[in-house]
Amino acid sequence: MIEGKGKGIGPAEERLSRFLARSGIASRRHADELIAGGRVTVNGQPAVLGQKIRPGKDVVLVDGKKVGGAEKQVYIMLYKPPGYLSSCSDPRGRKTVLSLLGGVPERVYPVGRLDYDAEGLLLLTNDGELTYLLTHPRHRVVKEYSVWVEGPRDEGKIREILSGIIIGGKKVQVDYARFGGEKGRLQEIVIAVHEGQKHLVKHICHSVGYEVKRLKRLKIGPLSLGSLKKGEWRYLSPGQVEALYREARKGWEGERGR
Question: In the prediction, which pLDDT does 71 show?
């Protein structure tokens, strides 16, 4: 794991929530919810928030099933094509992004959302801690999108987007927005956000009168889609994983310093 052990924890001990995250069970926040909900036991006793365990010695169960310990941590970047769900399964039988990952033996999960009809960069991992850091808005990890919309090229609409858009009673502030290419009546808007509400980028464009025709995610923090083609994937390098951690922690530290 990239992050060292917390203060006050001996070399043979680890916080239970972190152990569950490293084991691919859940993010650390969700792990705390599992513990608080009474779904986790340690050596036959209900676990408590903040509890420390000895991995390999203490027996940890979640919903009665043993957690075997930390899996090999896997980090994957995928060019998600349109027509795939960013989930592990679908009761309606639609295709999910996991069906594109041939040859990956570990259980991995999508990091955040990318709409069914959208395309572009999607991360998948079994590292619950990194998932939490990248998806929680307080860490301010920026996601950049190329959005092709129908309508006139109006700089006033960009200024409106930059001033903040009210969505669901909440003001959403984008990180940046600008026009890109142009194809007839279609305009490209390059837009970046650090929040993760469902259909957020589409709602932002619709709010200023633009109809979205194509949406593609280009970047997540320091990571770019690069030369990947639709449906292709590759493992992240250790340096790329470290850069993602560094970016997320930088945003959290900046927020606390305000």
Answer: 65
